[in-house]
Amino acid sequence: MPARDIGDPQNLGLKLWVNDVLKQDSNSKNMIFNLAEQIAQLSSGMTLHPGDLILTGTPAGVGAARGEFLKAGDVVKIWIEKIGTLTNKMA
Fold first, then answer.
1. Which end of the chain lies in a sparser environment, N or C, as judged by fewer CB atoms within 10 Å?
2. What is the mean pLDDT of residues 55-70?
3. What's the rounded Cα separation, in Å, for the pair 40 and 37?
4. SS3 (DSSP) at 12
5. pLDDT (tens digit, 9 = 90+) per residue, 17-60?
6. Neighbours of 69 (CB within 10 A)
7. What homologous superfamily does CATH list for 3-89?
8. How many other C-beta atoms lie within 10 A of the C-beta of residue 16?
9. Domain definitions of the chain by residue range
10. CA 91, CA 46: separation in Å to the nearest integer?
11. Nearby residues of 31 by Cβ (< 8 Å), 6 or more positions away
12. How much of the chain is helix, strand and coil, in % rounded to 5?
């Protein structure tokens, strides 16, 4: 999806479910370092190319804090506003 279709990347809803149970519900505006800061930091040490992925971290609600860990057969679904939904079954 072209960036022009996203609008403000620092104001996108983010949700994550495990086996249809909502585990994370946040917004990209809550990121510690915004996307522009992360791109600037990475660009200072490497060349970024179109299609490169930048892993930015995750909102509050990770399972390790609750002693919950993914296991084979679990279904993880993540939704990002204006981008869409990705669903993955753990092998």
1. C
2. 88
3. 5
4. coil
5. 999 999 999 999 999 999 899 999 999 999 999 989 999 888 88
6. 8
7. Fumarylacetoacetase-like, C-terminal domain (3.90.850.10)
8. 21
9. 3-89
10. 33
11. 10, 56, 57
12. 20, 25, 50
Give residue 66's pLDDT.
87
Structure tokens at 23: 């585990």
Does pLDDT of 83 surpass 80? yes
| Cβ 75 vs Cβ 18: under 8 Å | yes
Alpha-helical regions (H) of 1-91: 35-43
Contact 73, 19 (CB under 8 A): no
Give percent above pLDDT 70 in the chain: 100
**Main-chain phi, psi angles of 2, to 5 degrees:** -65, 145
Contact predicate 90/73, CB 8 Å: yes
Alpha-carbon gap, residue 56 to 61, rounded angstroms:
15
